[in-house]
Amino acid sequence: MTNSADDAVEVKPSSTSLHTQLVRFISVGVFTAAIDYGLTLLLTYLGLHRSAAKAIGWVFGTIAAYLANARWTFGAKVSGRTAATVGILYASTFAVQNFLYWVLNEPLMALGFEGAVKDTIAFVIAQGVATVTNFAIQRAFIFKER
To answer: What is the pLDDT averaged over residues 122-143?
Structure first.
C-alpha cells in the first residue's frame, strides 16, 4: 500500500462482503439523507427557494456521506483523490437528482399532492435513483479492491 494520492485507494486487507457494504451504504444514506432533507425543509420553511434549499442540504449531506462511506462502508482512506472523484460523481448524480426533484413537481401536483408531502415524494424518488447510482459506481470503480 502506498501513500501517494495518485496510486490506488488503500482498502482494508480483509474486505467486506457486498451485502455488508450495501447495508452500510444504505445506513449511511438514510442518516445523510436526513441531514439533506432536514436542511432542505428547514431552509424552504425559512423562505429560501426550494432549489437553493435543496442544493444546500445536498452539500452538507454529501460531505457526511463521503466521509462515512469511504471509511466505514468501503474501508478506504479519505484522500484528496477519492474526495475529488466522489465529488465529481456526486455532482453528476446531484444534477440528475435535482432534475428529478424539479420535474416531479407538476405531475405530483396534478395527482393532488401539495407542500411537504409533494416535496417528500419527489425527494424520495430522486434520492433513490441517486443512491443506486452512487453505490454501484463507488463500489465498482472508486473503492474497488485491487
So the answer is: 92
Segment (H or E) for 105:
helix 105-110
Query: Are 63 and 36 spatial neighbours (Cβ–Cβ below 8 Å)?
Result: no
Here the cell at position 112 is 393532488
The total number of structural domains in the chain stands at 1
By the 8 A CB rule, do 91 and 133 touch? no
Q: Is the pTM of this model over 0.90?
A: no
* Residue 136 and residue 1 in contact, taking contact as beta carbons nearer than 8 Å: no
- Please give the Cα distance from 75 to 10 (Å, whole number): 8
Residue linked to cell 447495508: 23
Per-residue b/e over 3-13, b at no fewer than 16 CB within 10 Å? eeeeeebbbee
Output the pLDDT for position 8: 45
Expressed in angstroms, the distance from the first to the final Cα of the chain is: 10
Q: Is residue 59 part of a domain?
A: yes
Range of the domain at 116: 18-142
